[in-house]
Design brief:
The protein has 14 helices and five strands. The chain is an alpha/beta fold. The chain folds into two domains: 112 residues, no CATH class; 238 residues, no CATH class. α4 packs across α6, α6 packs across α12 and α11 packs across α13. It is globular and about 65 Å long.
Amino acid sequence: MARFFPYLNNNGGNNYLRRLKQRLRDENDAFDLTDARFMELFRLNKETMRELINMLEPHLAGGTRGHKISKEQRILAAVRFFASGSYQRSVGQDCFINLSQSQISLAITEVATAIETHLHGFINFPGQEEYPGIKAIIMERFNVPGVIGFVDGTHIAITKPKVDVEHQYMNRKGYHSKNVQIICGPNNKIFSINAAHGGASHDAFIWRNSRINDVLHERFITGDRTSWLLGDSGYPLLPYILTPIRNPPENSPQHRFNVAHRRARSCIERCLGILKARFRCLIKERMLKYSPAKAGSIINACTILHNIMIHRNLPLPEEHEIQNYMDDHEDEDLFAQPVANEHEARIGNLAQQNRARVIQFYFN
């Protein structure tokens, strides 16, 4: 190419390319796309995207250097990356984005941080006044009483972090990740997210150090004895977390409980499948090539966008995509772990009694 365009080898060539990209950005408006193509690229429809832009613009800086990149363009670029998970360079070469790799990287960080400032506006654990409605939906669908949500951990692959913290992010499957605790409801809405822990952390450890554990423990202490989450065997059996029973006899009440438990808990697996099908930057094959802190910010941003889409009742991904990305996260068995102290023993006994009552009244 240099034989025919020798000026591209000097600063004049760089300026030419910069002006060309700016002109392409100016001449190609993503909002001119068809509605179907727009949603394919950005996951949001045009109306929701415009609302997102209005919400985020006050949190973004004015522009970059002499050739300003508009706030709208930075938001579109970041959301395009969240949706595709493609490398920054390929996103930047999209004719509707046309930003350099460094500009894309800055936009992703800036926009994810701006979205994250709205975390508590879009992701909230339900109050006790909301419990009856949630319990009724889950009871009707799965015949499991008292359930207010589903909890699980999912590993989001990240690039190798700094050596001094690398051991905290190497998971038991042999790659670096964040183990993200998510709690969802029966209609795919995310109630809680905790993206602060590395892949080496066990689900039970993350739970014990989570704010929601404290919330539910306090509600239990103050009298709520009939509300619980469903978790797999990676979680401790608590008065407010129901876990399955180990190796129950076939066709026994305990076995029927496990079958119903597994069917109901598929809600969290489906929620994770929808989240990852919508925002493929979260799937293992794409990997977040950021520091753990920045990766956590991107994960939080994607869950907020997911809840916005649930609230707006936007179409779900194709069923085969959801199935492809439904989580297969199986954690270590906690059944045989020793009790740490007398208080935990007492709580454990209460939890055993609670689960036994549920089985007696609903699965006999």
